[in-house]
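Lab notebook, entry 435. We have the chain sequence and a SMILES string for 2-acetamido-2-deoxy-beta-D-glucopyranose, and the next step in the workflow is to get a structural model of the bound complex before anyone spends time on docking refinements. Request logged below.

Task: model protein plus 2-acetamido-2-deoxy-beta-D-glucopyranose, output structure tokens.
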Amino acid sequence: MAGRGAPLMRGGGPSSLPSRSARIVMAVGVGVLLGCVFALLRPDGFFSPVPASSQGRLIPASSKASSPSCESPEWINRLKSELASMSEENAQLKKRVRDVNMKLQLAEQGKDQAEKQVLVLGANYKAGPFGTVKSLRTNPSVAPDESVNPRLAKLLEEVAIRKELIVALANSHVREMLEEWFQNIKKAGISNYLVVALDDEVEELCKTYNVPVYRRNPDEGIDSIARDGGNHAVSGLKFRILREFLQLGYGILLSDVDIVYLQNPFDHLYRDSDVESMSDGHNNMTAYGYDDVFDEPPMGWARYAHTMRIWVYNSGFFYIRPTIPSIELLDRVADRLMRQPKSWDQAVFNEELFFPSHPGYDGLHASRRTMDIYLFMNSKVLFKTVRKDDKFRNLKPAIVHVNYHPDKLPRMKAIVEYYVNGNRDALKNFPDGSD
Ligand SMILES: *[C@@H]1O[C@H](CO)[C@@H](O)[C@H](O)[C@H]1NC(C)=O
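Result returned:
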């Protein structure tokens, strides 16, 4: 597909080097040849012998041959002063070029800053009275760019509802879970979802079950990177594929396949932040943040140091709006996964999202929202707390993510039994953690 890979694959590649140096060698050769020809035709050179005063800065090329006075001290002194003034002019010219370059650069930076300001604020406002001000957390959506991937753009037009959809990446290793995943999505009456099939088997499976599927062209751009590269390249793939969806202007609910859908999650989103994510936290405190006091008794009066803590966001289920900070986040995560092969994508995702700017580092400024832990529930909350506590009897989550347990499929099925078929004993036989 023409025009697609361009923004993804930067740099000309090493293949452009040999031809360039060959061209240089050729150019030099031609220059030498021309020099020889002119030396034969015009041994006296191009410039007629003219006194330096009338020629300005030009030193007579053949002055020695044509001017008998050229060896006089007067003539030499004139030449010397001519030379001195030339080198001074040269230095001044250089300085002027430097100044202009600097001014250009500053102007560019200023323009950049100004653009950012407009992007963030739209206009300059005076601050309102106490208690009435509210900063911006809902960044503007990017202008959709269909040229990024026309085929995907067409598909998304059919599948998305209000420019939103659920997206899951899957290969045949997770086939059974994927089946459970889309069956529950269908039962919950959700139609705006899409499977990004990473192999033929998954594509076939989706077609068989009438599941919206998108198979990437395996020979182009990032997919060939993923195929030729190691594991780390593949884990970065999710974030790079997601980028295209955002560039096309869609809000994406990224979903792992070990998730049971019980209600339509789009009915429970706030849509006010760049990233709205489910939490790995297991109660209000750990999910929404708290002051963790670090105690160091030898410090005496100042023994308590306060720290900010929050359990990580789950990079297997988050809603991401199509904004510049969101796309920057995806780029930063993908880039780090490429450069640090051993890193864990969820840790990188959280670090990029939360670490502030500090010396030598520009933090991302994306707005964030933690999802309700009982609506977007992880399996620790369900198995450790919710299933045992009567006050949660009437609670029905929108989704349950079996992220804390390795026996995913049986737990997924039990969750459906429990919440959909009303079998209150369905979860009883599972331990809180893994055996
Ligand atoms: C947890 O937070 C929710 C939402 O803020 C609140 O309604 C609930 O009472 C909190 N629960 C506890 C145990 O503090």
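Notes for the group: The radius of gyration is 33 Å. Worth checking against the assay data. The CA atoms of residues 165 and 245 lie 10 Å apart.
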